[in-house]
Every structure is written in structure tokens, then in C-alpha cells.
Design a protein that fits this description.
The protein has helices at about 1-25, 35-40, 45-55, 60-75, 80-90, 95-100, 110-115, 160-170, 180-195, 210-220, 230-235, 245-250, and strands at about 105, 120-130, 130-140, 140-145, 175, 205, 255-259. With about 260 residues, the protein is of the alpha/beta class.
Amino acid sequence: MPQMQSTETAASRHADVAAAIDYLVRHYAEQPSLDDVARVTGISPHHFQRTFKSWTGLSPKRFLQYVTLVHAKKLLKGRTILLDTAFDLGLSGPGRLHDLFVACEAVTPGEYKHRGLGLSIRYGLHDSPLGRVLIGVTERGICGLRFVTGGDDTGGDDAAAVNAFADDWPAAELIPDTDKTSKAAAEAFDFAFSKAPGGKPPRLLVMGTNFQIKVWEALMRIPRGGVVSYQDIARAIGRPSAVRAIGGAVGANPIGRSE
């Protein structure tokens, strides 16, 4: 009897997951929440989340992102207006659409509040096509890239770059590791200078205010070789009157900052 109950439970859970997948595929344009999908199966959101991930290897949110991304790629073929594509997918705007493509992650609110507490960051100094750089990486992506201007009277040397980077992450564990960072630096600049279409962007982990992160995401949407003004960025993030603040956020960008 216990074996039969176990089999019946497995079959029931399989049916729940199958129903959820079918619902997500059919209703991706509505961008349903976890509660919406769990309601289809009749089990609690918490239990549904665990069941779905144990059967598929993905969270419901990640699965929905994948389904949406597939449809986004189809819609973008032959289209130039990102806003139309975003709305057709049930997203709030081009920024949300871009989130599906760009591998950019913000630190958690707790990590932001405590300035990197609990994070291990490996850093190293390397020569690049644009000069000497300091790069910091975590298991979640590149968290900093600074250009070193040289050993002049302003203190723009290796030590100053390391000290400035440490100021950005005062509570994090900083570990010098050029072997680890050399690979990340090579991948970042290979992507930046590649003339081939497509390519996988490096993963980024950034720490900033919500406003700063919106600005940095807008910077990542600029096509290679493209030029935009602060006003363009302000419009893109829905803050047309925040041009001065845009300039400050661009200057605070942790990826590509100059010392």
C-alpha cells in the first residue's frame, strides 16, 4: 500500500507540473505570478515552487523567462520597435525585455545595505586593449572594472586603484587572484571588441541604487559603436527631467570606471 501511495503521489505531482508548464506556455503574455500558476495546481505557492524545481530543474520564474525569451527572439525578427515587442510579451517596457537578454544582476538589498558583507571578491590587475585595468569578480559575475591611468601626481597607479576598489566593497572579502581575473578580463574584452554578431555578454554583479542600476542597464542597451546623450538615457528609463542625475549615475558606473 505505501508503494502504491508513493506512485500515486509521483503521478499527481507529474500532472501538477505538466499542468503548470502548459499554463505558462499558453499564458506567458500575461506574465503570471507564482501565485497564479500555483492556483492552477491547487497547492500552496511554496510547495508548488519546490515541486516544480525538483521536476524541471528550474524555478517557475526562470522557466517563464525562458519561454518569454523564445517568443521575444521570434518577435524581434523583422521588428525594430522594442516597445511593441515588450508589450506583446506582457512586459512593462523595453527595459524588462532587455532583462531577458543581458546577464546583469544587482546585489541583494542585504548585500547593498552592508556594502558587500558575505561576498568573496577576487581581483587582479591586467593589461588590456584600452590600457591597464583592475577587475574584480565573484561567483555571480564581474563586479568592477577600473582603468588605471598611470603613476602620476594624482595617485592613479595600481595601489590607488586597489584602494578605490576596496572602498566600493568595504565589507567584502577581497582576495588577489590574477589567474581567476585574467580569464574574466579576456572574456570581457573579447566580447567588447568582437565584430561577430551576437556573442555571450559577461555576467555582471553591480551594487547601486535602483536609479543607478536603471541607468547602467540603459548603458548596456547602447549598440556597439553607438553614441547617446544623457537626455537619451533619461528618456529611455522614463525620467526625462533627470539629466543631471543621469550624469552622476554614469560617472558612478562600476564597470569601466577610470581612476
